[in-house]
Fold these 3 entries.
Entry 1:
Amino acid sequence: MAGTVSTLAHVARHRQRRSLGDPRWVRVALIGAALLFVALFLVVPLAAVFVEALRKGLGPYFAAFADKDAQAAIRLTFLAAGVAVPLNLVFGVAAAWAVAKFEFRGKALLVSLIELPFAVSPVISGLVYVLLFGAQGWFGPYLGAGDHPWLGAWLNARDIQILFAVPGIVLATVFVTFPFVARELIPLMQAQGKEEELAALTLGASGWQTFWRVTVPNIKWGLFYGVVLCNARAMGEFGAVSVVSGHIRGQTNTIPLHVEILYNEYNIQAAFAVASLLTLLALVTLVLKNIVEWRHRRAIEAAAAADLRQYAQ
Amino acid sequence: MSIEVRNLSKHFGAFTALANVSLKVGTGRLTALLGPSGSGKTTLLRIIAGLEFPDTGDDREAGRVLFHGEDVSDVPAGQRGVGFVFQHYALFKHMSVFDNIAFGLTVRPRKSRPSRAEIAERVHELLRLVQLENLGQRLPDQLSGGQRQRVALARALAMQPKVLLLDEPFGALDAQVRKEMRSWLRSLHEKLHVTTVFVTHDQEEALELADEVVVMNNARIEQVGGPQEVYDRPVSPFVIEFLGNVNRLAAGSGKLHSPGSDVLYVRPHDVDIQRGAAGAHALRARVLHVFSAGSYGSVTLERIDTGEHFEAEIARDRLRDLDLKQGDDVNVVFRHVRLFPRGQFTEADVRDGRLSEAPPPGTPPAHGAGEHI
């Protein structure tokens, strides 16, 4: 009996698929066009990076990383990301929490402000820091007696240099990667609502306990995804960092800036070798993202399967 | 534990959710807050739980919540000793059923936290109580609606609350499960005798389940009373229209006449149909439709004088004797009618119970019909 039913269902599904589907040539054309586009604009450039990097063999490839300036650039990139990602993680969770769980005046404005770094060209973001901390800037650190000398004087007295130094690069990176975590979490937390948190509250949990035991487990995959994206951008940022860096070799060059310098010196192979590092980072990011999404889908499917079992009983 | 709220008001922007509401709920009672959506019942429940706070006015005595005579208005939700069951259960999705139920015990400060073994024992006891013994390791997503609801209930009961509050406890369940859960909750209440308040918009649910029904409308309480009382002696047009089926007929024109009121309410089961010729005082009606299923038949009638349609519920035997056909003209007798005075009700009328105790007598509006026969 059950066999008959499933056969009928199979036939019905088959028929439905045929009547709903597009003609074969349309499908082939569409898929072909999409594949061609992906190949031209994504796969070929990606392959080109590795082909160019390995053109002279493995020896010169690794030699590009043995260079002192290259290592300094890698260290600086990791430092900038190492500061920017945790900062924006904490900030992003706090902002998403505030936006998703509370009602207050100016909420829409706050959301717009969080997205501001996405809307502004990174070069402008960098220029803003030059305007603030540069020699003729508002906080004019070198003059000590500019138009607004107080902060400049304070920084100067402690011999802290912002622009054309590591702090400027970190600041610019933080600014540019500001929205990633918050943007990932806000829609997620809004969709989840605050009922579970309220339930925890009525059960006597403190705010801290509620956050760690109820909120964090619910947002962990979204949070992870946001952090991965934030990190990729922090390491890959060029525009804003380029403006504030000053391109001092071995001191204020990040990986993307180092690649540019090598390229401008016609050291194409080394440029691509260092660039392949960033490309690998992008690939790892993609794989991580897919694992996260796959796990998420699995969880949903498991739940749906459990529901089906329930009905079958 | 008795509950009392005094002069609660609550606004959400321009919307008034509660307007000066006062209420007392007796210890160990099962009370229903009944009303249409937007009537303020859920807001009232959430204020009792401490999840929402009433507007603070100039009057320091206004907007107070008392448990057993003790002011808990400033006590946080977690310390009120209240078990709250949310409409969509709000189970912790990432925790097993066991961990959900244990949550309230495991978040206690170390000093008052029971040992692991004690917690496990308590959770198993609760799982038995809600008949989910074997499902402790499941995730909430792997449960049916009725099972989730029982987990939510067990979770709320784990901290041995003195007050149990349920927001639309059966709202998300399908009709069959809803019926089962209703009688199950009733028997659970008989067993535990925890003071319980639940919110519902389903009058049948409220009347069947509750010891006491609080009818709410438009941010106010319309009537408080036992199920029988609010059904038989409604104090306002809203209550009679909201609780059960009722016919609303013009009383100022045609054969029905009453000096104090424009409208007359009569329940379908208080309408009787008689064969015979038209008398001078009789209310005449034409049969539009006869539907007979179950122990009662339902007849749709049209008043000859005004053309209004109304329903009558007639016992099956009597319906057979009458042998009604579509288009027959018949005499109609109202065994019991309800009149409300013309014009707006003042709050004082409702509060003082003047309306419920002495409905305006008015002249008998129809042949043979008065307040009581």
Note: The two ends of chain B are 42 Å apart (CA to CA).
Entry 2:
Amino acid sequence: MRILVKGVGAAMALLLSTPAVAAWEPTKPVEIVVAAGAGGASDQMARMMQAAIQKNNLMKQPMVVSLKGGASGAEALMYMKSSEGDPNKVLIAYSLIYMLPLSAKIPFNWRELTPVSVVALDQFVLWDNSAGPKTLKDFVAAAKAASAPFKMGGTGSKREDHVLTVFLEQKTGAKFSYLPYKSGGEAATQLVGNHTEANVNNPSENLEVWRAGQVRPLCVFDRERIAYTTKVTDTQSWADIPTCKEEGVDVQYLMLRAMFLPGKVTPEQQAFYVDLFHKVTQTAEYKDYMEKQALKPIFLSGKDMVQFLEEDDALNKSLMTEAGFVAK
Amino acid sequence: MEALGLLLHGFAVLLTWKTLVLMMVGLVLGIFVGVLPGLGGPNGVAILLPLTFTMDPTSAIVMLSCIYWGALFGGAITSILFNIPGEAWSVATTFDGYPMAQQGRAAEALTAAFTSSFVGSLVAVLLITFLAPMISSFALKFGPPEFFAVYLLTFCSFVGLGREAKHKTVISMSLGLLLAGIGMDTVSGSLRMTFGSPELLRGINFLVAVIGLFGISEILLTMEERLALRGHAASISLRVVLGVWKDLPKYWVTLLRSSFIGCWLGITPGGAIAASFMGYNLAKRFAKEPEGFGKGRIEGVFAPETAAHASGTSALLPMLALGIPGSGTAAILLGGLMVWGLNPGPLLFVEHKDFVWGLIASMYLGNVVGLVLVLTTVPIFASILRVPFAAVAPMIVVSCAIGAYAIQNAMFDIWLMLGFGVVGYVFKKIGIPLAPFTLALVLGNRAEDAFRLSMIGSGGTLKVFWSNGLVGSITTLAILLLFWPVIDNLLARVGLTHGTRATSP
């Protein structure tokens, strides 16, 4: 009930503050395309946006979430590519737009889509079982001393989790066997059940098992600590997790969460969605979600976004090449 | 008992007119989506999820879970009347349910299906109520080797316990495994057998194949043999229902066995499908007259339905307690929970008691209300069989096509479904069983992934499948079942058992 009241309040505020409607508006229900399975981080974010848009009346047409996680997300990419000129489909993208074309030779290039906005950056954290080593140093020492390589759980093969594992090996000299699971949720429970020694899940994927005291965060793969200082467990907040660099292992990676339209849509249509997602980032739902899932807020569109994408693409390409994951 | 007190509290939360009305609405919508093949539970819940955003979490989840129960009940209707399974786990229900309908015993088969769904769910809900914390820690024991052992057990029980010729079962299963390999290989991250076609990227969807293999091929066969649906309206009345119920105690062993299998497999993800097949096969193996199976035995409906629903219901437990959805529908409910700000995980039972116990109470109520609702509507559904074939066949084909399209919004899937219809027709003509094919298609990928992850983790040694008591006993049981006909004969020879009519010559 409290959420409802808050939502209605936010809606009223928006109705009063926003100027006249944009020139173009969708005339059909808008499909938000998720390139991952149900319950994963992309799906959760899409459902948050669906709820934020509906509760705050940001759009006249309803928004429906459509899960196209087949072929590790390639299904969604091909679907967007083949929907050229259709302004009623929005993709919620992440680093797969750079990585899949390289590792699986999918005939896809993000430049063929219309960029709308970057809405968040996602962190990666190194986690181990709460019965395991307490610091990164101890963990690396234990991994080196172990008779069989430590098992590292992750999502998918030759993707961000796998890349991070390879770089962790390079920087520490320890060896890991990488186990590609179907989702971050599965990687989390497998760590709790002691079937793996560690994983590199996003904060949201391990949040609940961390709160239950079943896993321990060792370090975050970013230049600086996560900003949120509200206590998540009894003793720790996200900001209490050291960076890997502080602990002596300089590995960094941030993942984009961005919205794209299919190719060949009009500038008016693009402008409508830039405005729509800008409004979404102003809602209480979005702000709550960012803090709860420990995401970095960001909003980029237009030239800034394209520049960001080009730099990010180049970075991912070099990481993939260095890790040896580019298909010949 | 703390659980009992909390449960009563849950009932108190639920028993308002508003919730009861939402429950009825949910059930009716659920039955409706369940009857349309392919639409099924996951799509129904997904379509209606946004309707609930403005409700409070308890009302919302009650309505959504009632859609789920309704769809489960509804799925049995098409399996029995038209040989078209609505969900993966309804496949085994068609084996005896459809022959019963053809013999004019549709009402009896429907009553049996609904009643056993109710029994299976009830056992599972009781289990959730009293053993939730213990069971969720059991699910954590499952790593890749354990998962593989369970899949192996399912495959082996099919070969060892099935009554069809062994080589035909193996042929059928191998073809299924081959097709399951199409698409993205998650372990290596590269594409297999897609031949550069973007349509094949997704792989072959199990439901599309099933609608074609069972539904379309049945229409083709009927067209060839007789232009009429066999079976006429059975005399439907309270008498039929009471008759089935009166016989129920006779089958208590079957019901109990299936409930047990269902609950056990339900807490491991993807278990509902394996459970329904295993329940059916074991019922057949332990029956006094196994010959009658596949020709319209009521036990052949009881066994898979009880197991499927026991596991479908207990699949909600790992979702709530660990955040791993056990089925497609559970996955969408999971998405819903997060929208309402509830994070499934070990702390959900501690921090949101009201919600969890309200949901569990709604499982009891939803099942009882659902049973009454479907039983009273049996006559309406059974009367569909009285419609002339010429009128009903095009409607079935069209609804199959809509169903196949709706799963992934792909036109290609309709062609695929028609292709599978022809394959199913040919298989039936040359006597190759369809069930092992569908089983391999749905579990093939998971079994392969689990096997390869076990191998990566163990450094390539098969010993990992005997590395602890749990995985060791499942693997051993699987191998025993695979060679069961041989073992059974040997035992009979040394005079230890009477030998159940040996299947292999």
Note: The CA atoms of residues 229 and 389 of chain B lie 6 Å apart.
Entry 3:
Amino acid sequence: MTMIFGVPLAVFMGQLLLGLINGAFYALLSLGLAVIFGLLKIVNFAHGAQYMLGAFAALLGFRYLGINYWVALLLVPLVVGALGMLIERLLLRRIAHLDHLYGLLLTFGLALIFEGALVNFFGVSGASYPIPPALQGGVNLGFMFLPIYRGWVLVAALAVCLFTWFMIERTRLGAYLRAGTENPALMQAFGVNVPLLITLTYGFGVALAAFAGVLAAPLYPVSPTMGSSLLIVVFAVVVIGGMGSILGAVLTGLAMGLIEGLTKVYYPEAANTVIFLVMILVLLLRPAGLFGKEA
Amino acid sequence: MTQLAENLELEGAGYRDHDGAEMLRVSDLHAFYGESHILHGVDLDVKRGELVTLLGRNGAGRSTTLKAIMSLVGRRTGSIVINGTETLAMKPHRIPRLGVGYCPEERGIFASLDVEENLLLPPTVRSGGMSLDEIYEMFPNLYERRRSQGTRLSGGEQQMLAMARILRTGARLLLLDEITEGLAPVIVQALGEVLIKLKARGMTIVLVEQNFRFAAPLADRHFVMEHGRIVEEISAAELPGRRDHLNQLLGV
């Protein structure tokens, strides 16, 4: 049997794949966080809860309305994104002129409310969401066995990241977003409806989180607390990557997933802390993050 | 996508110039940043096609007057009529759609956009703006550097870019804040030529200027500001006889 540093190849590749998939979720979530932070300057503590709402909406839609996975993948981000826009319009906008810490507190409070409400109805044990029939089973790649759904998650997450990158870096709307991130007042003076841009941006970031939630539903137990544990890691990823760049958020997300996976192979005890160790190192050496611009 | 971008921009059609009429009338304008009261009753008027300057020492309120017109200050009272429309209660993003272009003192070039993206950024506010080709003809340097990051340009090129991007939008009233500040004489001269061309195209221009020698030959009228109000209005014809008085006001 082929061995890599004393570990069977199949085990090694399997952990690498798990790491990549975790990384894809980190990438999707940190991307949304970075986009929201860029324009609103708010650290969106509700991001994990919005991811969880995405998974729950898919689960409940399937159970009670018979909405299948593919429809949910399109519909849930729209619905949860719309909820995000409502939150921005009714709550965040009212405190936009205050210190950004209030935004952090508000979104943290919202996250607790969403989680608490769902725990009250569904408990914390979590439910499972079936893998859609078309994506069941797996393929033997020779060196490892690849469950098709996991491969799909990777492809879908990367495609959405690429789409987001294209939207922000190559379209007119994206140029508004980048310019608005730098100098919103001047954008108003050019005639751009910046409040609307802010609402759309928040909605988009939240929709990204909800999309990740739907992707995650067949992989992990769907429970009200599934987002909060993930979010802490995602914050570390954002800190490592730096708030500045879209590509940076995606690459850092994937890289951190891989590092986590590798650590699981060689030193499982540290798997849960390795990202935070990297974060400390990055903060010491490059406080603005790997891809961030020095202030 | 384009549709969405357009929704962010525009419902500002139906715009007409009032021939021979006032392009801008500011009456008893007070402006505040938080608790500090910056403008204390500014009155001025600009006719269509005119070029006027706002002169005065640092802190006299000239830049704040332009910002107040664009609704970029905290609170305003009084009246600002642009091309026949009272704008005091308007949302800030609606004001440019009356055909106003603003070039801020700090230039406001976006670092995350390249030169051409900077040029294409401000939404069209009405038809009749210059095309990209015309702009590149007027500012050949910008064409050569169109793929550079906006803030990598020299100071003079950044100033050209800040001017050029509001010419594309079809704005007919230009508010230009200290466009010659810190630039080499040859570039200042080039900017002067640009202003002459814009005036020939019928643009109305309000120029906040420190460099009086630059502004004097271009302007139809000069407004002198002190302590947040207009203290003197001098037409181009009166200028030779009142030069000493003006120098005294400006402290040169």
Note: Chain B has one domain: 2-10+21-250.
